[in-house]
Hints:
Layout: E1 3-9, E2 26-27, E3 30-31, H1 32-41, E4 47-52, H2 56-66, E5 71-74, H3 81-86, E6 98-103, H4 111-120, E7 126-132, E8 141-145, E9 148-153, H5 160-163, E10 167-176, H6 177-185, H7 200-207, E11 212-216, H8 228-248, E12 252-253, E13 266-267, E14 272-273, E15 278-279, E16 284-285, E17 290-291, E18 296-297, E19 301-302, E20 307-308, E21 312-314, E22 318-320, E23 325-333, E24 335-337, E25 342-350, E26 352-354, E27 359-360, E28 365-367, E29 377-379, E30 384-385, E31 390-392, E32 395-397, E33 402-403, E34 408-409, E35 418-419, H9 431-449
Parallel strand pairs: 1-4, 1-6, 4-5, 7-11, 12-14, 13-16, 14-17, 15-18, 16-19, 17-20, 18-21, 19-22, 20-23, 21-23, 22-24, 23-25, 24-26, 25-27, 26-29, 27-30, 28-31, 29-32, 30-33, 31-34, 33-35
Antiparallel strand pairs: 2-3, 6-10, 7-10, 8-9
Amino acid sequence: MTIALVILAAGQGTRMNSDLPKVLHPIGGAPMLVHAIRSGATLEPSRIVVVTGHGGEAVGQAALDYAPFVDIAVQEEQLGTAHAVLQARAALDGFEGDVIVLYGDTPFIQPETLEKMQAARATHDVVVLGFEAADPGRYGRLVMDGERLDRIVEFKDATDEERRITLCNSGVVAADAKVLMELLDAVGNDNAAGEFYLTDIIGLAGARGLSAGAVTCDEAETLGVNSRAELAEAERIFQARMRAEALSDGVTLVAPETVFFAYDTVVGRDSVIEPNVVFGPGASVESGTTIRAFSHLEGCHVSRGSVVGPYARLRPGAELAEDVKVGNFVEIKASRVDRGAKINHLTYVGDAEVGEEANIGAGTVTCNYDGVMKHQTRIGARAFIGSSTMLVAPVSVGDDAMTASGSVITSDVEPGALAIGRARQVTKPGLARKLFEMLKKQKLKKSQEA
Ligand code: UD1
Ligand code: MG
């Protein structure tokens, strides 16, 4: 079965009280729209059309950033959900197969649910995704006639009796593209909202002798985000899912409820994630690694056997090979750290390469920024960087070389050399004691004057 997705994302989302279009508010570090695209993408659709309107440019751009293969259709005026789907017509030109309509603000529809809908298409011309609502509120109601879905009535237009129905419309619809477009063309806007309702296609289908049916899913899947409170709830649900997934994938989470994942976090089997670890987007951690407490990882890769943290920060472009150790209060950005290297304390490594088995002493800084441009630092294999070395980039330290503690290294160090870049120590016997006495006298004098 060939599939196309139409994702509606033109609505304003007034209740978010935000300058950011609703569908761009993030869950797990990615706009909620991206979650909708990703869940639909598991069906391997041949086309994905995102319908934008409010904040259209930003929404379209975000969709393309994450999913360059989508088409953008613009709904200039938000005249209703049926009107919105019709805007995808040009992008669907020549497409033959089923269209599935999803909402950009409904990020949690599961792939299995969409598969169930596809299966139901064998029996019905139009399939709607419904759910039993604990509090049906203002949802559209599914009016069933036995196994058949007779019509959907919007809350605003429903009678008291219809409002007592608890089987509600999620908004997700599947139908053959040609049939769907014909039905949409017949939708009018003579209703309480004066909108073109997508939901009207069910009644219209029945009138044409086509059959409609409903598939149901858990209410949690159809959770829509309309307010900041619902966004926070969506984040909670998302994190709970990611934690459960990690645990069942064989990852140890010592305190699961304190670990936060991004939408694309990958953690290999037999890794241990200690409490209060936060993953930003783009982090992958291979099997058998340990991420210790209070670390923050984003846009980075950690290879097998490495230990990161506690209190470490891996920023985008941090690439750790096997058996690397990164300790407390270490920040690594856009740097490759080769096998077995150790960066254990209080260090900044940015725009650098660190060779195999190199040892970076406490308090080392790659001074990568001159205020205008960024520069590279190269540290060779087995090099030993003394504590509190300032590596003023661009600079390189050769294989098996050393720098003395407290050095400011401004020129390249050849392999095997020891570089000392600091003032020579001078020791004056007895001078400290003399100084102390002088200072104490001064203090006494001052307090007597006061
Ligand atoms: C819709 C359904 C309702 C269902 C509910 C589920 C209709 C008429 N009603 O109602 O049966 O229970 O969703 O949440 O379909 N959108 C556009 N362009 C528009 C209008 C809406 O792109 O002109 C998008 C919105 O951005 C949103 C989605 O369509 O993603 C749903 O629109 P919304 O206004 O929230 O519809 P509801 O009134 O909630
Ligand atoms: Mg809604």
